[in-house]
């Protein structure tokens, strides 16, 4: 009995019935004068028509309208339906790291000439600083080279490709006529090789 009595007093009750005069005043101003709930609350305070204990705040007025406690719908509010409450996302500009794959020459697409390679990374662990595998595949012969890079970063990939350059020496430019990659950040320095 004692717990039930205190439990009934422990939660906040709606002030809808305590502030019924203010609610009626607000409904009248919105319907007849096309006021906003904020204008009704501001005018009631400015003129001293209601004191703070006889009113609810603007947010509560909007909540009561949304819940259907007042004889007003959102269509009755002058600006509620016109305002966009969703936050606009700023689109990030994506870096273009070279020409598009759709613009590469036809002989590369047809796989008729040796020396055109595709490059990508294979990640074993989820962290960026762990070792990755660098795969380089020749398009015509499907010959594949797999190298270990120390991280999935542009300097680490550049170091691995420089090792390949050292292995092939002067023949590097004859063997590697073009290298195609995706736009991942680890291939940002690919054009410097």
Automatic annotation (TrEMBL):
GO biological process, one term: transposition
Residues of the Integrase catalytic domain: 101-193
Organism: Clostridium paraputrificum
Top-level taxonomic group: Bacteria
PANTHER family assigned: TRANSPOSASE, TRANSPOSASE INSI FOR INSERTION SEQUENCE ELEMENT IS30A-RELATED
PROSITE patterns in UniProt: INTEGRASE
The protein's name: Integrase core domain protein
A GO molecular function held by the record: nucleic acid binding
One term under GO cellular component: cytosol
């Amino acid at each position: 009995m004692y717990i039930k009595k205190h439990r009934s007093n422990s939660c906040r009750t709606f002030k809808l019935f305590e502030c019924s005069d203010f609610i009626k005043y607000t409904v009248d101003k919105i319907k007849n004068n096309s006021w906003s709930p904020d204008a009704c609350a501001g005018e009631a305070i400015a003129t001293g028509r209601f004191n703070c204990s006889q009113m609810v705040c603007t947010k509560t007025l909007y909540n009561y309208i949304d819940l259907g406690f007042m004889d007003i719908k959102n269509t009755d509010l002058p600006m509620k339906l016109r305002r966009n409450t969703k936050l606009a996302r700023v689109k990030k500009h994506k870096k273009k790291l070279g020409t598009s794959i759709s613009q590469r020459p036809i002989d590369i697409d047809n796989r008729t000439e040796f020396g055109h390679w595709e490059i990508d990374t294979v990640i074993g662990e989820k962290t960026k600083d762990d070792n990755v595998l660098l795969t380089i595949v020749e398009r015509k012969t499907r010959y594949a080279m797999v190298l270990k890079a120390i991280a999935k970063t542009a300097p680490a990939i550049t170091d691995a490709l420089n090792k390949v350059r050292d292995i092939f020496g002067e023949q590097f430019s004859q063997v590697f006529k073009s290298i195609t990659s995706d736009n991942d950040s680890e291939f940002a320095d690919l054009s410097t090789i």
